[in-house]
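re: ur question from earlier - yeah i can do the single chain one, its not a big deal. heres the input i used so u can compare w yours
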Amino acid sequence: MPFARVCALALWAMLWVTAVPTDLGAATLRLVIQSHADMGGKCLDVPRAQFSTGMRLQMWECYKAPQQVFVYDDQTLELKIGNLCVTSWGRGDAQDAVGIATCEGGANQHWKMVAVKDYYQIVGINNRCLELRYQIRDAGAPLDIQDCDAGRAWRLWALVEPPQ
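and the output i got, formated as tokens:
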């Protein structure tokens, strides 16, 4: 097994073990979501740390501030930041925008982390994947959902442990 894959698996296992609440049994992870290295390695970010319903997510330089630290619950499949859920707006069609909203438990707020070598696809409603809209690599780039294709770097994400 390549060294990078072993390191990624070890990090994932370490995050998993340290994130399991002992009283609930559900596994939750604190993580920073970083774009593929070929796409600039920027981080998923809430613009200007404005945690409010309707704020669209963007890509930004990584500095692991609170607006870049997400919590993933593998039982509810919710990806949260602050007290809001990452949400695909619309019916789950290709290119539906992605932002944050009040958690309501809808299918548009459920995300699965699917391993693809050293990266992950973040799969949402209608089995569509989180992606960098139009493959934009610049800071401020918006996100949307699109048909999953593990061969597209703009649909692959690194899950990074945030600082405590």
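Residues 1-25 have pLDDT under 50 and may be disordered. not sure if urs matches, ping me
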